[in-house]
Specification:
This protein has eight helices and seven strands. It is of the alpha/beta class. Strands 3-2-1-4-5-6-7 form a seven-stranded parallel beta sheet, sandwiched between helices. The model has no long low-confidence stretch (mean pLDDT 95).
Amino acid sequence: MDLGIAGRKAIVGGASAGLGKACALSLARAGVELTIVARTQANIEAAAAEIRSATGVRVTPVAVDINSDEGRAEILTACPEPDIVVNNSGGPPTGNFRDWDRKAWADALNGSMLGAVFMIKDVVDGMIARKFGRIVNITSHSVKAPIPILGLSNSARLGLTGFVAGVAREVAKHNVTINNLLPGEFDTERHRSNTRAMAKLQNKTYEEARAARMSQIAAGRFGTPEEFGEICAFICGLPAAYITGQNLLIDGGKYPGTF
């Protein structure tokens, strides 16, 4: 399918690995020029080289904290008029809410809510003026079904979800869409790290905890980053122009609800 976005410009956060990198690669295959972001210089440069080699598109790596004002300013200097923004950053740590102080909560809100809010604020008016924009926020299936050890993430990502629900409907008439992608169990390093934390909490081996998580998925397997990336690229394309303000759950059928 031709997504109709060849030649567009995109910013993709958390793009040195995992779901962010997969989204960047799928957008590049659709002909989108990329500015990709992660905190570690060597990692983001390696990802840029890999995507360039695979697709031939222009890729600019930026090593900053995407959730800081200074980092966001540097990103927008590299790509001042993005057509597409994929907000994605590593989630807050696992644990028990009794152990989290005010700083832990503030860091979680900044990393999993406010960073995306301020990026949207910085780019959306330009998108409105140009009559095209696609903003995708990578959140989590925990927005629909909270995970006990991810209380920081559950709360911050739900806050972003509420914010997007209102703003998406304000800007839709300008051909600017804002949607959230809710990944379930995808085989990434973040997923493996969470599984190790669960195994320790439950006094299980890593293999036992991994098997238990997989057994809850109707598809009988974890998702691949490549599958997720293709869905992200589709949501950014012209065929998805009538989809906005939505929370697309991508979890292999794990969530048991009707809605």
